[in-house]
Amino acid sequence: MSEKSLDPEDSKIITLARAVRARNGTAEGAAVRDETGRTYTATNVDLPSLKLTAVQVAVAMAVSGGAVSLEAAALVTDGEEPSDEDTAVIEDLGGAVLFLAAPDGTVKGRFI
User: Fold this and answer.
1) Most exposed residue of 34, 37, 45, 94, measured as fewest CB within 10 angstroms of its CB?
2) How does 71-92 read in b/e, with b if 16+ C-beta sit within 10 Å?
3) What pLDDT, on the 0 to 100 scale, is given for residue 3?
4) InterPro entries annotated for this entry (predicted)?
5) What pLDDT digit, counting tens, does each position of 9-34 carry?
6) In this prediction, what percent of the chain has a pLDDT beyond 70?
7) DSSP helix/strand/coil, 59
């Protein structure tokens, strides 16, 4: 499945996640869309004292911006499935669909 076969809004968050991952040269890029349609993008944080997945950072940014639920989320990574932490944080805000995509935009799966 490719980005082209998705709803345009879902394709958009995959594109945003790909762009932030490429721009920052990180292992993961994520984007989430909240209940009002606002989007938040993030990459993973890998510091000696702080390790967060890209999805965790994007969700934290959304919550900090006032979001109370999510419509959708996207994770771009070489991995084959989201981490337990990723699915847990998405479930905390209502269990929106989480699209997992390869760096080329190919959708590898839908979770939650």
Assistant:
1) 37
2) bbbbbbbeeeebeeebbebbee
3) 53
4) Cytidine_deaminase-like (IPR016193)
5) 999 999 999 999 999 999 999 999 99
6) 96
7) helix
| pLDDT of residue 1 exceeding 70 | no
Q: Write the pLDDT tens digit of every residue in 72-81.
A: 999 999 999 9
Structural domains of the chain, count? 1
CB-count exposure of residue 26 (10 Å: 0-12, 13-18, 19+):
middle
List the domain range (segments joined by +) for residue 55.
3-111
Q: What is the CATH number of the domain that holds 60?
A: 3.40.140.10
Alpha helices in 1-110 (DSSP H): 8-24, 54-64, 84-92
Helix (H, G, I), strand (E, B) or coil at 111: strand
CA distances from 71 to 16, 24, 54, 110 (A): 15, 25, 17, 13
Residue 29: in which H helix or E strand, if any?
strand 29-34
